[in-house]
Design a protein that fits this description.
The chain is of the alpha+beta class. The strands form 17 sheets. It has a five-stranded mixed β-sheet with strand order 59-65-64-61-62, covered by helices on one side. The protein has a four-stranded antiparallel β-sheet with strand order 1-28-27-26, with no helix packed on it. The protein has a four-stranded antiparallel β-sheet with strand order 2-3-4-5, with no helix packed on it. A hairpin with a 2-residue loop joins strand 51 (610-615) and strand 52. Helix 1 runs antiparallel to helix 3 and helix 5 (888-894) crosses helix 6. The longest helix is centred in the N-terminal third of the chain and has 68 residues, at 2-69.
């Protein structure tokens, strides 16, 4: 046992050492795999980054090609300027100053503005300002000219030199670099990619391949240059202060073009004409040049003799003219104007640009930035000839005449794109028209604030109704198929006119309310009456059947009716959504099921399966198939497409409580009345933008500190909160651009961000992540490429792989050291026990073999065969000493008398007097 106790720990320790060794080898292999994986991942990330840079180059090329070739989107020349969407921005919206002297759109989609207080980048919603403190290369904040060259570099002309900005690297050029003057007046890029720089009094300088060549007085160019234009044939046209138009030929010599009449003034701007000529904006007006001849173009009296500061010819051929008295538009031989009276923020126009989506940008002197964008809808109001902006009922008669009632403007006839108004002079009892209907004979009935009247053959005849008071508001009219007429007099009741006879129905006859908002005759001949507060009822054979919220109607306010091809009756309510009536039962669809709004003022089918509806927030449409599927439980929700201010409506608030509050004409157009004119919609020809918005990641903020938004962001350890700002550069409806983003390696999938333009992450673990973002325009066209950046989050030292390997080895070393110490302790203990045993055995000589003892006399036979007494034998063979005595048995046998005496002595000594065992 002594040997066993000493050897067992040693064996266990050897096994543990072998296990620790194997574990260490296994950990080393894992660490090596991790290191290789990290290296490979970084290499792949570098490859991805290189690929993205390559893609960016391709995108730049593609964008420049598209910019040259043009796109289909443009301002519709069939519309008046006032019918475009107009927006404006001033200093209160983020501009540093309200003078916008230069505008350009770069290949990445941004709009850049030159102001007197710096360079501005615009994404449609917000402005980013660059001035001397933030852009070191900029020596002067007064920006005079902007242009982008074919490589994607932005050239910035100022009153203090020139700046070339590309890939976040900006370089300044001044007189010290070869410029003849630091006052830049104009910039242009020719078909070879050379940049031409006009200076104030220093001629023209050409920048090509990092070198500059200047053409000035020696080449016949001593007059201050105000404008440049590079044509496709390689000529550079130069507009001067006093000498008119010059051309720099291939020989490098400037020569006058034609005979310039000093009465035409100085040339301020130049624009090419597809027919081969040039348009010149001068200090005296608009001049056309062709084949050596000049002609001062006749303009409206409002613009006659007014300086022209800027020109822009759009892709459909319209020439836009920026003057000091507003904006002009020349289409063919017709000139129209747009001034501050029409909504322009300032009449002095300094710069013009048509962007890639076809919108026109207008830089003014004191009014900041303006935009004119084409619209899906066309709106008509006072500016287009409507007698009043507040429009009420709309009806097209069988002759194709479109009638529009207004609030205070009487009745309007829209025909051949012109309005003719009828009012009190023509016999209307009131200039406020609430309802319209056409009967079977072709007469148009008008419900006004002061009763009912009939329009026949251009003559208006008032008709007196039973119960009509002085203020007899006729809000709804229905011409029945039997030739009779129904009229709802608000607050009075329901009047029925049948071949000269009249009957008035009130609440006493079962009418749920006298506040009648809508009338409809269904296919079964039932007259439906919608009320404001009393629910809905239908009358059949003189009996009213009423439904309210107690019967399942979602709202007691019913504005409109629509009966579909299947005979289903749909009711538009006030605040209760849209509901379908099915013989006593109502099924409702509201905002919870995807409807845009719970108030439905009017419902108009487009004949293509969609139902168009109006509300106080705009116009929206839903497919009838989706509505039926949702009612049947086959769909959880419907998809609504909404329209508003970004689509050409001057107000998103439509008008209801009138009839009809919406109408489809025989040409398929749909009209809705609003508080700011009438909206005209052609569902079959709504312009759809097929161009996805370009994407940009302009800003990254880490722990409230902005970092450079490069393709790769390296975050030190300890930075916790990351904000990534992205932009979808669509300027037609920027507020409706939708986004999705994903942080690969962190997010499990795409995050639908809606219109939000910031992605936020907190407590990112160490590692490498790729942020991706994509966007769609207002027509749902997605950008397939998207934008991305790499984020590398550095770990703390204790989060690195090497640290983990080090502490694992340290732990293993401690375990091994403890084991060695333990084994050493066991060995020392074994040695101590061995010493103790040896010390005990040193006193006793070890006997070996069997002792042969006689069973009778107990003698022991020694090695020589002699039989000896045990005492003699042990004395001879051991070192033990013996004491001699006699046992009680031998004492009694051999010494009986002595044994008796010893027994008596023991009895005396015993306290109980009993006899104990003999000694």
């Amino acid at each position: 046992m002594v040997q066993g106790v000493g050897r067992c720990p040693a064996l266990r320790g050897e096994a543990l050492v072998r296990s620790v060794t194997l574990m260490a080898q296994w950990i080393i292999q894992i660490g090596w795999v991790i290191i290789r994986f990290t290296v490979i991942r970084r290499r792949r990330a570098a490859d991805v980054h290189a690929g993205e840079q390559s893609k960016k180059g391709l995108l730049v090329s593609a964008a420049l090609i598209l910019a040259v070739s043009g796109r289909a989107a443009a301002l519709d020349p069939a519309k008046a300027i006032t019918q475009y969407i107009h927006r404006s921005w001033q200093t209160e919206h983020g501009l540093p100053q309200n003078s916008v002297g230069a505008i350009v759109q770069t290949h990445d989609g941004y709009i850049w503005l030159g102001t007197e207080e710096g360079l501005v980048r615009f994404d449609g919603l917000s402005f980013k300002i660059f001035e001397k403190r933030s852009l070191r290369a900029l020596k002067n904040n007064f920006i005079t000219a902007l242009v982008e060259d074919r490589s994607g570099a932005l050239w910035i002309g100022t009153r203090g030199g020139l700046v070339r900005w590309k890939d976040e690297q900006a370089r300044a050029y001044t007189i010290a670099d070869g410029l003849p003057s630091d006052f830049i007046t104009a910039l242009a890029v020719d078909f070879r990619g050379r940049v031409w720089i006009a200076t104030n009094g220093g001629g023209v300088t050409c920048w090509s391949d990092e070198s500059m060549s200047t053409y000035s007085g020696r080449e016949g160019l001593s007059d201050p240059v105000m404008a440049l234009w590079a044509d496709r044939e390689g000529s550079l046209w130069i507009g001067t202060e006093h000498n008119g138009l010059l051309r720099l030929g291939h020989a490098g010599i400037t020569e006058p073009v034609g005979t310039w009449d000093g009465a035409m003034g100085s040339v301020k701007t130049i624009c090419g004409d597809p027919a081969g000529g040039l348009w010149l904006g001068t200090s005296r007006g608009l001049v056309h040049y062709d084949s050596g001849r000049y002609g001062l173009l006749p303009v409206p009296d409002a613009l006659r003799g007014i300086p022209v500061r800027s020109l822009c010819r759009d892709r459909v051929g319209s020439l836009w003219i920026g003057t000091q008295k507003g904006l002009g538009c020349l289409r063919g031989s017709t000139m129209t104007t747009y001034t501050s009276e029409d909504g322009l923020s300032d009449n002095t126009i300094m710069s013009l640009l048509e962007d890639r989506e076809g919108s026109l940008w207008i830089g003014t002197n004191l009014g900041g930035l303006n935009q004119l964008a084409d619209a899906k809808f066309t709106t008509y109001g006072r500016r287009e000839g409507l007698s009043n902006d507040i429009a009420y009922p709309i009806l097209e008669d069988r002759s194709g005449n479109l009638w529009i009632g207004t609030d205070g403007g009487g009745l309007n006839l829209f025909k051949d794109n012109n309005f003719v108004s009828l009012g009190r002079r023509e016999g209307l009892p009131s200039d406020t028209v609430f309802s319209l209907a056409e009967d079977s004979e072709g007469d148009v009935w008008l419900g006004t604030r002061s009763g009912l009247c009939r329009l026949r053959d251009g003559r208006i005849t008032p008709v007196t109704l039973l119960g009509q008071t002085r203020e007899g508001l006729v809000m709804a009219i229905c011409a029945a198929r039997d030739g009779s007429l129904w009229a709802g007099i608000f607050g009075v009741g329901l009047a029925h006119m049948d071949h000269g006879r009249q009957i008035l129905y009130t609440t006493r006859d079962g009418l749920p309310s006298t506040h009648i908002t809508g009338l409809h005759e269904d296919r079964k001949g039932r007259l439906w009456v919608g009320t404001s507060g009393g629910g809905v009822a239908y009358m059949q054979r003189g009996i009213f059947t009423t439904y309210s919220e107690r019967d399942g109607l979602p709202s007691n306010v019913v504005f409109s009716f629509f009966e579909d091809a299947d005979g289903c009756l749909w009711l538009g309510t006030g605040g209760g959504g849209l509901c379908r009536f099915d013989e006593g039962a109502f099924e409702t669809i509201g905002q919870e099921q995807g409807l845009f709004d719970d108030t439905v003022l009017a419902m108009v089918p487009d004949g293509h399966g969609d139902l168009w509806m109006s509300c106080n927030k705009g116009v929206f449409r839903v497919t009838l198939a989706d509505l039926h599927a949702c009612i049947k439980g086959l769909r959880m929700s419907v998809f609504s497409v909404s329209y508003g201010l970004d689509d050409g409506m001057r107000s998103a608030e439509c008008n209801g409580h009138i009839q009809p509050a919406g109408f489809r004409t025989r040409t398929g157009e749909i009209w809705f009345p609003t508080v700011k004119g009438v909206v005209r919609i052609n569902p079959a020809a709504i312009p759809i933008s097929r161009d996805p918005p370009p994407l940009s990641i302009p800003q990254v903020v880490v722990d409230d500190r902005e970092v450079e938004a490069a393709a790769r962001i390296d975050l030190p350890a300890g930075w916790q909160r990351v904000e990534i700002h992205y932009a979808g550069l669509s300027f037609v409806a920027p507020s409706r651009v939708q986004f999705k983003y994903m942080l690969e390696g962190f997010d499990h999938g795409w995050v639908n961000a809606g219109t939000r333009r910031i992605a936020q992450y907190t407590n990112l673990p160490p590692g490498e992540f790729r942020f991706r973002v994509t966007a769609c325009n207002h027509d749902g066209v997605w950008n397939r490429e998207g934008a991305s950046l790499i984020i590398l989050k550095r770990p703390y030292f204790y989060q690195t792989v090497w640290f983990h390997i080090a502490w694992i080895f340290t732990l293993l070393l401690l375990i091994a050291s403890g084991h060695v110490l333990r084994v050493r302790q066991f060995r020392e203990r074994e040695k101590e026990l061995a010493r103790r045993v040896e010390a005990a055995l040193a006193k006793v000589k070890i006997l070996s073999g069997l002792l042969p003892i006689c069973s009778w006399c107990k003698k022991v036979r020694d090695d020589n065969g002699y039989w000896n007494q045990l005492e003699s034998y042990l004395h001879e063979h051991t070192e033990a000493d013996f004491s001699h005595s006699i046992c009680p048995e031998c004492m009694a046998e051999h010494f009986p008398s002595m044994a008796e005496r010893i027994q008596r002595d023991r009895v005396k000594e015993s306290p109980t007097g009993t006899t104990g065992p003999a000694a």
